[in-house]
Design goal:
N-(1-d-carboxylethyl)-l-norvaline Dehydrogenase, domain 2, 6-PGluconate_DH-like_C_sf, disordered C terminus, alpha/beta, stress response, 2 domains, 13 helices, 9 strands, Rossmann fold, nine-stranded mixed beta sheet, 13% strand, single chain, binds the ligand O=CC(=O)O, binds NADPH dihydro-nicotinamide-adenine-dinucleotide phosphate
């Protein structure tokens, strides 16, 4: 099966690599062309533009940073829309809001193509290991056709119905994750400032009812001040922002998430946006260290 792949960032590179390793023929495009080279070494072909990829491939997957990138790759010159049509499927796995997804879906359908949104839960390592959780919605026939590829990329796919439901589910999940990361950061700080060992706190957490893979994976690195990006902080803040907008639309009060978003915004303003989202710990530590008891 031949698949086009747009966007070779942290996630896209790992996902396209998995498809190649499982025997898919993959044609890749990335805005910064140099990032295609590692994939070419693994057997990928390079397409010159998103439109050229869609012209060549029956199915094209995108994994792009945010709503503006997702829209640009579809609607701009040499974009997906120029070549999408009957018999072609477009699958956007980026984390965006439901309105962005709906706009893309409507445009693709108007041209006779099929569209599935399929954001993923799981970071760089799950992407490398084919262990993502796929939150799909939209055209059910296209979804069914994509299941073999989703099975390569992930450990479980959910089909959530109409367009927008995948985007919303992903935003709810990441809103919870962002709040949890802030809570962990505050806990590590409080342990430290009150004379406890933060490492012992991690050990205690790991044995109790709130043990989770994120605390286990990120906690020790945070204590080392090591924030090599698996999930860039700027993307986590984008997800908090979009989740809060979903809360606005639905009149859901989310003070915990709003506070977490402020911490991520502060981290971005300090130039930490390209680090892992766990770098929000630096902001919390800074606040805790202000000496205002
Ligand atoms: N990293 C993670 O742990 C996870 C991320 N996600 C989501 O997946 C998506 C990708 O994340 P990730 O791979 O980490 O992000 P990266 O920042 O590593 O990659 C972003 C990709 O988007 C491309 N891009 C950005 N702006 C544009 C634009 N205007 N036009 C065309 N291409 C553009 C980049 O191209 P270029 O190389 O030229 O900059 C790059 O290929 C995001 O929506 C993120 O929220 C979901 C689950 C986990
Ligand atoms: O979106 C990030 C993730 O880890 O999932």
């Amino acid at each position: 099966m031949e698949v086009g792949f747009l966007g070779l960032g942290i996630m896209g590179k790992a996902m396209a690599t998995n498809l190649l390793r499982h025997g898919y023929r993959v044609t890749v495009w990335n805005r910064t062309t140099a990032k295609c080279q590692d994939l070419v070494a693994l057997g990928a072909t390079v397409g010159e533009t998103p439109a050229a990829i869609v012209a060549r491939c029956r199915y094209t997957i995108a994994m792009l940073s945010d709503p503006s990138a997702a829209l640009s790759v579809v609607f701009d010159k040499d974009g997906v829309l120029e070549q999408i049509g009957d018999g072609k499927g477009y699958i956007d796995m980026s984390t965006v809001d439901a309105a962005t997804s709906s706009k893309i879906s409507e445009a693709v359908k108007l041209k006779g193509g099929a569209f599935v949104e399929a954001p993923v839960s799981g970071s760089k390592k799950p992407a490398e290991d084919g262990q993502l959780v796929i939150l799909a919605a939209g055209d059910k026939k296209l979804y069914d056709e994509m299941v073999p590829a989703f099975d390569v990329l992930g450990k479980k796919s959910f089909f959530l119905g109409e367009i927008g439901n995948g985007a919303k589910m992903k935003l709810v999940v990441n809103m919870i994750m962002g709040s949890m990361m802030n809570s962990l950061s505050e806990g590590l700080c409080l342990a430290d400032k009150s004379g406890l060992s933060p490492q012992t706190l991690l050990d205690v957490l790991d044995l109790g009812a709130i043990a989770n893979p994120m605390f286990k994976l990120k906690g020790p690195a945070m204590l080392q001040g090591s924030y090599s990006p698996a999930f860039p902080l700027k993307h986590q803040q984008k997800d908090m922002r979009l989740a809060l907008a979903l809360g606005d639309e639905n009149a859901v009060s989310m003070p915990v998430s709003a506070a977490a978003n402020e911490a991520f915004k502060k981290a971005r303003s300090l130039g930490l946006g390209d680090l892992d989202f766990s770098a929000v710990y630096e902001v919390v530590k800074g606040a805790g260290g202000s000496g205002q008891a």
